[in-house]
Amino acid sequence: MKEGIGFAGKLARVFIDSKLTPLIIAASILLGLGAVIMLPREEEPQIIVPMIDVFVQMPGASAKEVEQRVTGPMEKLLWEIPGVEYVYSTSSPGVSMAVVRFFVGQNEENAIVRLNQKMFANFDIIPPGASPPLVKPRSIDDVPILALTLSSDSYDHFTLRRIASQLKDQIKETRDVSEVTIIGGQRRQFRVTLDESRMAAFNVAPASIVPVLEQNNRQLQSGSFSSGNREFLVETGGFLKSADDLGNVVVGVFNNRPVYLRDVAAIQDGPEEPADYVMFGKGPAGSKDVQAAGRATLAGPIAPAVTISIAKRKGTNAIEISDHVLDKIEHLKGSLIPADVRITATRNYGETSSEKSNELLLHMLVAILSVTLLIWLTLGFRESGIVAIAIPVTLALTLTVFYFYGYTLNRITLFALIFSIGILVDDAIVVVENITRHYRLPENRSRPMIDIAIEAVDEVGNPTILATFAVIAAILPMAFVSGLMGPYMRPIPIGASAAMLFSLIVAFIVTPWASLRLLKREGGGHADIEESRMTRLYRQVMGRLIHLPVWRYTFLLIVTGLLLGSLALVGFKLVRVKMLPFDNKSEFQVIVDMPEGSTLEQTAAVTREIGDYVRTVPEVTDYQFYIGTASPFNFNGLVRHYYMRRGSNVADIQVNLVPKGDRSAQSHDIAKRVRPAIQQIALKYNARIKVSEVPPGPPVLQTIVAEIYGPDYNRQIEVAKSVRDILDKTEGVVDVDWYVEDDQSKYQFAIDREKAALNGVTPEQIAATLRLAVDGMQVGIAHQPQEKEDLPIVLRLARSERSSIDDLRQIKVMGGRGNLVPLGELVRVEEKTADKSIYHKNLMPVVYVTADIAGKVESPVYVILNLNEAIDKLKLPEGYGLERYVASQPFMSDKYAMKWDGEWHITYEVFRDLGIAFAAVLVLIYILVVGWFQSFKVPIAIMAAIPFSLVGILPAHGLMGAFFTATSMIGFIAGAGIVVRNSIILVDFVELRLKQGMSLADAVVDAGAVRFRPMMLTAAAVIVGSAVMLFDPIFQGLAISLMAGEVASLLLSRMTVPILYYLSERRQHKDVEVPEQETETETETETEQA
Questions:
Q1: Alpha carbon 713 to chain centroid distance?
Q2: How far is CA 1043 from each of CA 415, 949, 1048, rounded to the nearest angstrom?
Q3: Structural contact between residues 942 and 558, judged by C-beta atoms closer than 8 angstroms
Q4: Are 512 and 399 within one domain?
Q5: Distance between CA 412 and CA 47 in Å, rounded?
Q6: For an engineered disulfide with 699, which of 278, 374, 639, 887 has Cβ 3.0 to 4.6 Å away?
């Protein structure tokens, strides 16, 4: 064995015949299996984005006063907190809400503590009449993983709610279950419906009943006393427990006789007045998915329903929790769950996580087997066995890194492993191929195989180390992408970098050990003949390119022309840029917003009409109406605050589709298909609808968001209306909406303070009476310990006595002399327009205009570029112009300005950061190569091949009709590392041949010929390993970039690099150009011999 072997040779010498090596292999596999078992599984990665809602009440204040007195000071305090990225606020009449969003990756607990400290330290500046702030943290763990909808033809909303409340306690007992919420149904309530005429007859005022009921619903510990060596406890009073108890409360005295509550009110023990409706319906494909207990069937299109949403604890396994809850529900059927109540899992992220994980694990196995089969067909069966050992060991160690890094087993981490297979196998291929080649060299026939293997490893060791770190240098900078997309995609660079590092170690420890035991000295077979033919062909082509200047420069011109032509595809929009393509999910939502002032029944009627259409869509299994309340929210709804949707004019329709394997249409295509019909229904009632799909990546407020800033809020609204009109008229732009409420009338009861004072009535007394009569007032709860939910006691006038202004004028208040005074004598009623909410973003007033895209061009980049032309033509009053901002808010709000946000903003951020990462990649690779080759020119020759992969990548995207997405860019950057890796090994072989005495031209041709087969195998391994990703909507771009980029690199870069190296180094060597005629003669002779 030669002396002075390097690091790789020394490492191989230690482990090639060591008993530790099989233990290392076994331990690695066991660690990987343990990680697979222990890693929590979920469909999407956890993105840590602390979001905190802060609410402050200021009853009676206008929106403008709330903005000035509450929102403004509060925003400034929140903006001072370290780590805050955005402060969004809404000032509405009587209430201020601020949403504080911290930078991605900030510690959630620390963020909550910092915010609470800031709030509590400034309680002294809370204005009079405002409540203390209510702080509610929100995170991705609040998103329900499971939604169970109870529906029945036999039971109403009230009964279903009572069944659900019993199930809630059972579900809550399940390990690792976090929040359990019941949506819909009517709670049990003691409804005290006051009779205005009977109260007048007994001289009882509505407001006077409230303190009486509160005082009669108390039971207090009054101490204890001792008697006869015993101590006795004393309690005073008693709780109201039943409707009879309520009816027997004395609320006044008339003609020296007690007046009971039952004398002046009707008392009902039953369901509350409906404030929302939840309904369940089946679609044409629904018969398979509805789990019916007993023989229950739906008699009509919709049935009353209640939904139970279940969230999990942080860091727990969604699959296990969902299974445990569903098992418990199955056991409760027939006991807590009646036979004629259906339970449908209308959301099961545990099931979808399991399906996705199993699917991707299968794809990973297919990729491993495919790469192994490739090595078998090209190098041989024994060589493939070595690779079949190296890949699982490397992946197992990478999974262990995921476990210790705190990742979960989700679609991104699994795709990171699949992506890694194609690049990590290269180390094993290089080492195995070189050992095989050395075994077959004539001079090694009599030498010990262990010495040959160590020398073969050592020969490729140093360039392989450098090449591996070059790939890591290409991939790892992508881990520093900012914004929501950063943590979403970060497992790919982290996992791939770890896999590359482990593959290098495995190549020097495990591969030589396995080669010594599996490989034989004898070679031959069809693979050798085929390799010889390809080698000769490569020598012929490279011989002409190196020796003939005409051929050389023609080739370089052709390659440059192909590159420019490929780039032109983007310029001519034959290849379009988009953040991420649409995913193929099994659900979408229809968000319905009726005009402000619409009644609950009117909203329900419109929602039912939309539902009648939805249930005709062939792919729909079931759908749920959430009228007046929010549906179980997803991550998209968390960011958009859909969970706060309440009111008589709002509704959500949750639509569930058959699994994607059972339908030919993508969910996005289905959403596009149903949108026009739903829009037509909405237009009839002046409603606004949005068809909301689950986003493929991090969610945003909407695909297109125009933020309008300016010095005057009313003028901002006018500008926003003009922008909204432009969006409405733009082809391909749909679901146009804006954050400005419709005009809604309100009646202001202005109190005549003089008359009120003369009658002994206070303004507070009048306000409390009206609130009790119209909105109802909860005066306490009935104490029934067996009830699962609170049993409120609510006072209210009958609906027939509070349905008009005249009715409200007739309501009585108690005067100072014990007489009843009609409100009409004390107030003046004025009709006004209700205040509109005022929105701020980072302390600046803003009006939002939102829209989605559905057309031929479904990328906001091109739509916004077209919209800019129309928006630039807008004429503003008073000589103002509308300034446009691309990525940041205007510095001041003294001028009218517009900023594009939404998907455009995250697209800009991601491609900007990936561009910066790519620049960092180039710098790092250049430094590495300069350090290794000690030359400033050689790295340029090596790196010049990087852009030539675009010759394959961009045309491939165009031919497949695919967007060039963020994952496409990741594939291009990773491919750059692979190109450089092979180029480094190639150039290192050239320099090795030069040291052995070869001429520059011969060394360039010979090194390329020797390295052609492993380079071809590397390209083939990348192509085969990436093929399983080709049909995933999100990662298709990554697969196209890797596969097409490797093909282009194999055909172009493997020739371009030797030529550029030859041109850069020929002046330092004595090679003389061979005459063209002589070279052609030699080439013809070689061709005949081949």
A1: 33
A2: 15, 10, 9
A3: no
A4: yes
A5: 12
A6: 639
* Cα–Cα distance, 503 to 897 (Å, whole number): 53
Whether 704 maps to a domain, the answer reads: no
Max Cα–Cα distance, the chain, nearest Å: 133
Domain match, 114 and 253 both: no
**CATH number where 115 lies:** 3.30.70.1430
Average pLDDT score over residue span 947-958: 94
Residue 557 domain flag: no
Residue positions counted in the chain: 1090
pLDDT tens digits for 804-818? 999 999 999 999 888
End-to-end CA distance of the chain: give it in Å, rounded.
36
738 pLDDT above the threshold of 90: yes
Distance CA 1017, CA 432 (A): 11
Domain stop point among 833, 859, 890: 833
pTM value is 0.86
Q: Which of 138, 166, 199 is the last residue of a domain?
A: 138
If asked whether residues 204 and 126 sit together in one domain, one would say no
Tell me the CB-side half-sphere exposure of residue 562, using CA atoms within 13 A: 20
Q: Identify the CATH number of the domain in which residue 827 sits.
A: 3.30.2090.10
Mean pLDDT, to the nearest integer, of 625-645? Answer: 93
Separation of alpha carbons 527 and 89, rounded Å? 69
Mean of all residue pLDDT scores within the chain: 89
| Cβ atoms within 10 Å, residue 653 | 25
Residues 148 and 145: their CA atoms lie apart, in Å, by 10
265-271 vs 188-194, strand pairing mode: antiparallel
Domain contains 15: yes
Pairing of strands 883-885, 897-902: parallel
CA distances from 586 to 47, 151, 589 (A): 22, 21, 11
Instruction: Quote the pLDDT of residue 3.
Output: 55
Q: Is residue 1056 in a domain? A: no
The three-state secondary structure class of 902 is strand
Mean pLDDT on 599-622? 94
**Both 30 and 70 in a single domain?**
no
pLDDT band (50, 70, 90) for residue 850: very high
CA distance 589 to 271: 29
Q: What are the φ/ψ torsions at residue 752 (nearest 5 degrees)? A: -80, 100
Instruction: Give the residue-averaged pLDDT of 1063-1078.
Output: 62
Give the per-residue pLDDT at 525.
Answer: 38
| Choice among 626-640, 842-856, 1008-1022 with the minimum mean pLDDT | 1008-1022
Using 50, 70 and 90 to split pLDDT, how confident is the model at 1077? very low
Transcribe 182-219 into DSSP letters.
EESS--EEEEEEE-HHHHHHTT--HHHHHHHHHHTSEE
How many independent structural domains does the chain possess? 4
* 289/280 Cα distance (integer angstroms): 13
pLDDT per residue over 168-184, tens digit each? Answer: 999 999 999 999 999 99
CATH code at 445? 1.20.1640.10
Residue 279 and residue 267 in one domain: no
Residues 68-85 have a mean pLDDT of 96
511 and 595, same domain (yes or no): no
Structure tokens at 568: 């032109």
Q: What is the pLDDT of residue 1089?
A: 43
For residue 435, what are its two tokens?
Answer: 């050992």
pLDDT score of 532: 58
d(CA 638, CA 51): 9
Q: Are 225 and 231 spatial neighbours (Cβ–Cβ below 8 Å)?
A: yes
Which of these ranges, 119-133, 299-313, 377-391, 527-541, has the smallest mean pLDDT? 527-541
The predicted model gives 463-470 an average pLDDT of: 86
CB atoms within 10 A of CB 358: 12
**Is there a single domain that holds both residue 384 and residue 515?**
yes
- Decide if pLDDT at 1075 tops 70: no
The whole domain housing 63 covers: 51-138
Q: Decide: 68 and 509 in contact? Cβ < 8 Å.
A: no
Shared-domain flag, residues 196 and 131: no
